[in-house]
Design goal:
It is a single chain. This protein is an alpha+beta fold. The protein has a domain at 8-91 and 145-221 and 320-368: FAD/NAD(P)-binding domain (3-Layer(bba) Sandwich), CATH 3.50.50.60. It has eight helices and 22 strands. The chain has helices at 18-29, 63-83, 99-111, 121-127, 148-161, 205-215, 287-300, 346-357, and strands at residues 11-14, 34-38, 53-56, 88-89, 93-97, 117-119, 136-140, 144-147, 165-168, 172-177, 182-186, 191-194, 197-199, 224-228, 231-233, 244-248, 255-260, 264-269, 310-311, 314-318, 325-329, 332-336. A hairpin with a 3-residue loop joins β17 and β18. α1 (18-29) runs parallel beside α5 (148-161) and α2 (63-83) crosses α8. The chain starts with 10 loop residues before the first strand and ends in an 11-residue tail after the last helix.
Length: 368
């Protein structure tokens, strides 16, 4: 007697970065038969999820995002418990700079019941000798440093443990919208027809699902894809003196930083890099931006050596208002617009996307 044919996949998740991994894990944990496909190798450096560290912080001036950070904090604890791994080092976080923005962050946190501490610039410099401060200063303890590479691996391992199939080095070449299902065409010559696709592809969303969503009357916003170039700087100080930090300079812009153990203190400008095609970028540093970053670090991060940056190339995908895009049309769910602040929400985003893919409602803030 022949064996029964394998049951078709309930969901195909496209993208093996942190959001795709979190989604595959959430779907598989619910008993959904899930295939994850990723065009690059496992743990690759071509997207937005690579590297060893990211910031977790609750410091937003926006009540919606503060609420989401509180939910995410619990989701991280659950993920650590499920994986048996430490994924966040609790370092605390500090914001400083433009008074109106720092005060708005303080108000949003206080309204949400998050404990905060206001300091003078001198008090802050005494507590964190690796940094110099300006404007208003705000600290909160429910923050830290995410072990980002370990997080992606933990999510993939859990997804696979719960029955998900993971395929790396396989590129999606096209999607055929069949009404109630989608045929996913792969570059190995195979195809998969499924009632649900989750395109957790960040910078690749416009080219992969833009036309499909437009045909269903829900065009994606203009996703700006840029190549950013933060850098690691060697520290003069012990690891334990470094918080996660965000500076809102008095003359505009935003700068973030955190320690990456073993690599130095990572510092970067937020969203200032050149627009690129995610499939055709050469990772060449912009010399003037490197010099500008070094000048910033020399002034505001005295606890490191500004003279010898170890440059990093990373890909940003942002919507015009920096809000996430999480929505479903027919059998296709899209996830994009996370860069600069999305990683901290990863386990929660996986749950939200799994809800969408299984017929749940979208968060009204993030719909098309």
């Amino acid at each position: 007697m022949s064996a029964p044919a394998p049951r078709p996949y309930d969901h195909v998740v496209i993208g093996g970065g942190v959001v795709g991994a979190a989604t595959a894990r959430s779907l598989a944990s619910r008993g959904e038969r899930t295939l994850l496909v990723e065009q690059h190798a496992r743990g690759h450096e071509h997207g937005s999820s690579h590297g060893a560290s990211r910031i977790f912080r609750m410091g937003y001036p926006d009540a919606d995002y503060v609420t989401l950070t509180q939910r995410a904090w619990g989701a991280w604890a659950a993920l650590e418990s499920a994986s048996g791994r430490t994924l966040i080092d609790r370092t605390g976080a500090v914001d400083h700079g433009r008074p109106e923005l720092v005060d708005a962050i303080a108000a949003a946190l206080e309204q949400a019941g998050v404990a905060v501490e206001r300091l003078t610039t001198d008090e802050a410099a005494a507590r964190w000798p690796g940094l110099s401060f300006e404007g208003h200063v705000l600290a909160h303890a429910s923050a830290g440093r995410i072990r980002s590479a370990d997080t992606v691996e933990a999510l993939l391992d859990l997804a696979e443990h719960d029955g998900a199939t993971l395929r790396f080095g396989v590129r999606v070449t096209g999607l055929d919208d069949l009404g109630d299902s989608v045929t996913v065409h792969l570059d190995d010559g195979t195809s998969v027809t499924t009632p649900s696709v989750v395109a957790a592809v960040g910078s690749w969303a416009p080219t992969l699902v833009g036309e499909l969503f437009a045909a269903r009357g829900a065009g994606l916003p203009a996703i700006r894809v840029t190549q950013e170039q933060p850098a690691h700087f060697s520290s003069h100080l012990p690891d334990e003196v470094w918080p996660s930090f965000v500076h809102h300079p008095l003359d505009g812009g935003d700068v973030y930083g955190l320690l990456t153990p073993g690599e130095g203190v990572k510092v970067g400008f937020h969203g200032t890099g050149p627009v690129v095609d995610p499939d055709h970028r050469d990772r060449t540093p912009v010399a003037a931006e490197v010099e500008r970053l070094q000048a910033y670090v020399a002034r505001f991060v005295p606890g490191v050596d500004a003279s010898a940056p170890s440059l990093i190339s990373c890909l940003y995908d942002n919507s015009p208002d920096d809000d996430f895009v999480l929505d479903r049309r027919g059998p296709v769910t899209v996830a994009t617009g996370f860069s600069g602040h999305g990683f901290k929400f990863a386990p929660l985003l996986g749950e939200m996307l799994a809800d969408l893919a299984t017929g749940g409602a979208a968060h009204p803030r993030f719909t098309l």
